[in-house]
């Protein structure tokens, strides 16, 4: 996992894909914090072993989002864990975040790459084999497959692909780009994370499993242990 | 109006404020087109005499907004009329729009200037004397005062300032920056536009008065005639 790969997007020189550790990818969402601050959730998650943080906000104003993103970026300072912003490249740029995560309804990955530059982390959601086929892999540093299982965090999501669908899509992605890191999202928690990793991905992305947990630190720590063990069993770590 | 002014935001060199003609500022909003396309409304408005177009969309996905903004930019090609995007600097950058318009809930004007560059048009909404006092005029190319009158296009807006409030805020803005072009918005149409201009502004911004008019071309043309006559009477044109 996290294999470096050269590609040609983002400038005249081949771009070195930025290594991204997807093992425990924690999405913080104001609606999924049990009343805690986004910063408190993110700090606990990273202290527990989260390897990447995404700020996801479908309702805040641009000004609120920039303030929250700046607070998260400051909170992660010195941890080595990058912050990416869901959808909103404007917020990512204004807050100095490390990158952005885009899906089918968001800015095209190539546009996000162009606006955020060669060094930014650009992540892409992929929900089906068709989307895997059409993806602009040269523009992205990782992909995230979902929805894997049904979940309350994304009520308007497509039908879940399940573990079999996840395996099939992950294989397809690797046919188009063998080296891109692949994660999975939706309905993943400590009890099913090992099975998710066994389906062929490099890590798990979660929202409520950490943000809405009684103890986000403990939830992140448990997920990290489960994922590390499953990756070892797959011979991938 | 449209006086050039030097200021120091946007780089080490003084920035020449980009001249912006606010006489008839047409905001196109998908909810205010009577079922016509955004492009059809914008083209009719500009053919009728609109001097600036803003794309305003509070509900579309980022991908839809970028597609709409690109279509609008292409439609205005060659007209000399610039396109600015409400709030979303990401959409403006991705679509190659001429600038963005920000308000209290949006990205700070200084951040928008930094991200969009020295040559972009950055516009700012101002709703009160307090906001006029705190504005970062050196970052913006024009300001727009509102809400002037009550309107259905902005149902969650603050109480309207009326013509007296408009005059007071416009005077205050000019105390802080005598040369910034000043427009007015909300509830303005051909029957009250002359009074609005007489209150001391350089033009009128409208949404439904053009977009929801039976004939947007005719509506823009009428507004332009009224505004030009009122500006001549004020000795401002």
Automatic annotation (TrEMBL), chains A, B:
Pfam hit, one: TMP-TENI
Top-level taxon of origin: Bacteria
Name of protein: Thiamine-phosphate synthase
Keywords: Magnesium, Metal-binding, Thiamine biosynthesis, Transferase
UniProt cross-references to PANTHER family, sorted A to Z: THIAMINE-PHOSPHATE PYROPHOSPHORYLASE, THIAMINE-PHOSPHATE SYNTHASE
Organism: Pseudoxanthobacter soli DSM 19599
GO CC terms in record: cytoplasm
Pathway participation: Cofactor biosynthesis; thiamine diphosphate biosynthesis; thiamine phosphate from 4-amino-2-methyl-5-diphosphomethylpyrimidine and 4-methyl-5-(2-phosphoethyl)-thiazole: step 1/1
Binding residues annotated for 2-[(2R,5Z)-2-carboxy-4-methylthiazol-5(2H)-ylidene]ethyl phosphate, in chain numbering: 151-153, 187, 207-208
């Amino acid at each position: 996992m996290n294999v470096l790969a050269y590609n040609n997007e983002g400038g005249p020189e081949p771009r070195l894909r930025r290594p991204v550790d997807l093992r425990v990818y924690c999405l913080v969402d104001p609606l999924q914090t049990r009343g805690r601050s986004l910063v408190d959730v993110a700090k606990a998650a990273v202290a527990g072993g989260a390897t990447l943080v995404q700020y996801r906000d479908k309702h805040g104003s641009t000004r609120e989002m920039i303030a929250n993103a700046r607070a998260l970026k400051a909170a992660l300072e010195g941890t080595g864990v990058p912050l990416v912003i869901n959808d909103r490249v404007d917020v990512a740029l204004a807050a100095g975040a490390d990158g952005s995560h885009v899906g089918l309804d968001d800015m095209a990955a190539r546009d996000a790459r162009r606006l955020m530059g060669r060094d930014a982390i650009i992540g892409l959601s992929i929900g089906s084999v068709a989307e895997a086929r059409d993806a602009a892999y040269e523009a992205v540093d990782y992909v995230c497959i979902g929805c894997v299982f049904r979940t309350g965090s994304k009520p308007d999501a497509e039908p879940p692909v399940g573990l079999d669908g996840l395996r099939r899509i992950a294989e397809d992605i690797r046919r188009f780009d063998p080296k891109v890191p692949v994660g999975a999202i939706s309905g993943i928690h400590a009890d099913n994370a090992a099975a998710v990793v066994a389906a062929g991905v490099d890590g798990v992305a979660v929202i409520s499993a950490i943000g809405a947990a009684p103890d986000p630190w403990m939830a992140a720590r448990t997920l990290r242990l489960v994922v590390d063990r499953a990756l070892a069993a797959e011979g991938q770590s």
